[in-house]
Amino acid sequence: MPDSATLFARALKVIPGGVNSPVRAFGAVGGTPVYVAAGQGARLTTVEGRELLDFCGSWGPLILGHADPRVVEAVCRAAALGTTFGINTPGEVEFAEQLCAAIPGLDQVRLVSSGTEATMTALRLARGHTGRRKILKFDGCYHGHADYLLVAAGSGLLTHGLAASAGVCPGAVEDVLVAPYNDAAAVADIASRHGADLAAIIVEPIAGNMGLVEPLPGFLAGLRAVADRTGALLIFDEVITGFRLAPTSFGALCGITPDLTCLGKIAGGGLPLGAVGGRREVMQKLAPCGPVYQAGTLSGNPVAVAAGLATLRALRETPPYDAIAARTTHLVCELRKLAAAAGRHLHIASRGGMFTIYFQAGPVHNLADAKRSDTAAHARFFHAMLDQGVYLPPSQFEVAFVSAAHTDRDSETFLAAAAKALTP
Asked: What structural domains does the chain harbor?
């Protein structure tokens, strides 16, 4: 089998940048991207036959680890019956029922094929339901690559967003407002000026795309209050957090019910699947019931649904959450000790099985804070860990994941590698 360098050179000729998702290109850390031949449990096997201990977990879906037998069996069984029909199947009904039973506020759900589709549908639905145009999002929160979600904050603190990608027309983002995450005062100011035309407030309840950033006390409750006061819909993008900390949503855990919840990653069990769900009166605005159009040939794909059902069943019947959280806490606490011993200033954020190592002293409450990190130091750490057989997300601004497949020995392997990587 060709090695990673050879495959990347070939890919550069036929795939833009050699990758099908930009962060895989190692642009933030340098070097040649890794090519994987297989995964099992908490480990990857590269095309060179090298074994890597994986803390990326396909960017979040693999809470049970790679190739979990329960998921593989379900996928094989479903695929043997047909990979797609474009016709309704029993599995999508059962899956929708399970999502609605697991998450408060989900009266109905619409299945799609990605997190981007879920958030795009949620925002179109919010605009269609309210008859309003404006959307409030938060700088540093990523909700997929739809035109009006590729938005960065403008030059002022409370400005309309600016296109954050070439090819996004100014008109696509002129009704998108951007505030700093965790800034209740900014939200209040925007609501006072634009509340009558605000269709939706969309937020990652725990931010995961500027590294791991938790909401400050009262921030999410404040968003719920602003939405209620203005008549806007509150949308929780739980593509990362859904089923991450418990067999439900983070909204359920923190006692805040949004009007719409977007799901993906874990919900699809490692296959392409997303969902948006919420109150019946809102969801009934979707076609064919209402005037908000959304469709997809592979929506509710039977193989993806089978993977999702198997994953949700495993999480419900043998919950791994306490063990994952305990292992992550141990890893983070010991890592802080190693950093202190090495004289390194690190801010390590963690929640459940998620963690981010920021190469700065902290704290990190928003994107501006996160950007103070030493990205060059992170790149050196990433490669030092990779050289010792530990694979982390190749970006300072992503979240690492501990899965149910990781063991205490894996934690010690990580810490031994980190001790060397942090040595000046």
From this structure: 4-63+320-421 (3.90.1150.10), 69-317 (3.40.640.10)
